[in-house]
Amino acid sequence: MADLYALDFDGVLCDSCGESSLSAVKAAKVRWPNLFDDVDSTVVDWIVDQMHIVRPVVETGYENLLLVRLLLEMRLPSIRKSSVSEGLTVERILDNWLKLKPIIMEEWGEQREELIDLFGKVRDEWMEKDLASWIGANRFYPGVADALKFSSSSIYIVTTKQSRFADVLLRELAGVTMPTERIYGLGTGPKVKVLKQLQSRPEHQGLRLHFVEDRLATLKNVIREPELDGWNLYLGNWGYNTPKEREEAAGVPRISILELADFSEKLK
């Protein structure tokens, strides 16, 4: 029996945290210029370091902007404009992001779509000015590019990243050319909806279905949909998740914890 793999992008195929953190800092400076008046490179470096720790909470890219500003308020109390940043720690962000996010968005008067547009625009401008450095701020996980190139399975990308960025990285960094109709990016609907579409296609009938994610919350959403009971679910332990999440996932019968070497081998 042949296999179909639906793959998340960031945290499964590509370690994009360096690029997304730097892009978020650039975008935050555009969105809230006054807050960055007295911010030096030392503070920016600290924020980027902390972003690597809190990255597991990010579902959609625009959230990186919110995290940058929240971290800035934690570091510089004089600019604090949210009720939640006093005494806040990265551990509390990891544990409570779903509660914190709507609070700070309301207090800062921010709209999701506006932040999405700004984040995409800043990335586009960086790529236009210096594509090599934008690409260089990303890296594919070891073995993944070759596994994609030589896979005999049907491969689809299912990501909350904007499709054009995933496409450029696949081509320019991994050397993989994938038809654009196989990349389901931001705006194509929730991942559970995309999985339903993929399994319903006539050409996919009879295939073994596999979905690889690094976010436990996303896999839980799939489990809640009885219609998706036919999917084999995997949590990539090399991606943007925490030991606490991996421990929880290990106790869920539907979810297999996947090692990077085993993932590359499966794709081949």
Task: Describe this protein with a few key phrases.
268 residues, alpha/beta, Rossmann fold, 2 domains, 8 strands, globular
Structure explained in plain terms:
With 268 residues, this protein is an alpha/beta fold. Helix content is 51%, strand content 12%. It contains twelve helices and eight strands. The strands form two sheets. It has a six-stranded parallel sheet with strand order 5-4-1-6-7-8, sandwiched between helices. The chain has a two-stranded antiparallel sheet with strand order 2-3. The two termini are 15 Å apart. The mean pLDDT is 96.
Helix-strand layout with pairing:
Layout: E1 3-7, E2 14-15, H1 17-31, H2 41-54, H3 63-75, H4 90-108, H5 112-129, H6 131-136, E3 139-140, H7 144-150, E4 154-158, H8 163-172, E5 183-184, H9 191-200, E6 208-213, H10 216-223, E7 231-236, H11 243-250, E8 255-258, H12 260-267
Parallel strand pairs: 1-4, 1-6, 4-5, 6-7, 7-8
Antiparallel strand pairs: 2-3
Helix pairs in contact: 1-2, 1-3, 1-5, 2-3, 3-4, 7-12
Could you say what the CATH topology of the largest domain is called? Rossmann fold
Strand content: 5-15%
Instruction: Please give the count of helices.
Output: 12
**In what order do the strands lie side by side in the largest sheet?**
5-4-1-6-7-8
String of helices and strands: EEHHHHHHEHEHEHEHEHEH
Could you give a quick summary of the protein structure above?
With 268 residues, the chain is an alpha/beta fold. Helix content is 51%, strand content 12%.
